[in-house]
Amino acid sequence: MTSSLDLVVDDQVAIAKPLAKQLAREVARMIRAAALTDGYAAYEASLRLTDDATIHALNRDYRAKDKPTDVLAFAQREGPGGPLHPELLGDVVISVDTARTQAKRGLHAELLHLASHGLCHLLGYDHRDDEEERVMNLRAAALRREARRSGRVRAA
Fold it and tell me: Contact 10/48 with Cβ under 8 angstroms?
């Protein structure tokens, strides 16, 4: 069994196909690296690239925050079937609109950063205080390093 990623790009999102393909490859590497670190044969997750209007509605409906955001994570492990299927991580949703606005090192780098942040939330990390944020940021950085590396995926 290998880790898998389902990438969904909403129709209204304009993103170059090579960028989406590269992002999918790198996020899949992060998922595999996380599974190896956590002692699982594989993890499954989805990544949805959407716009500000859609993420605004999701943020309002699921987090009671009536504004767009950059990334949301919906952890399957927190749901009723989570304990039965710990290899099913959940869904990460990224607003490409917000990512473009925030991007200081280019859209690709920002999308990879947001994907690693969302993936960490799916893995159970949070940033409610400085120490949690430090630990989460270290894991996200390790995952991004593994995403960019070539060769066989290693634990990260």
Answer: yes
Residue positions counted in the chain: 156
Q: Residue 142 has which token pair? A: 């390790």
pLDDT digits 0-9 by tens, 14-70: 999 999 999 999 999 999 999 999 999 899 999 999 999 999 999 999 999 999 999
The answer as to whether 14 is a domain residue is yes
Residue 38 lies in a domain: yes
> What amino acid is encoded at 85 in this protein?
H
Give the closest residue to 3 by CA, choosing from 23, 38, 37, 30.
30
Tokens for 16? 């170059």
Distance CA 96, CA 115 (A): 11
**Integer Cα distance of 98 and 44 in angstroms:** 25
CATH number of the CATH domain containing 40:
3.40.390.30
Chain centroid offset of residue 92 CA: 5
For residue 25, is it within any domain?
A: yes
* DSSP H stretches of helix in 44-129: 52-63, 96-102, 107-122
pLDDT, mean of residues 138-146: 97
Q: How many domains does the chain have?
A: 1
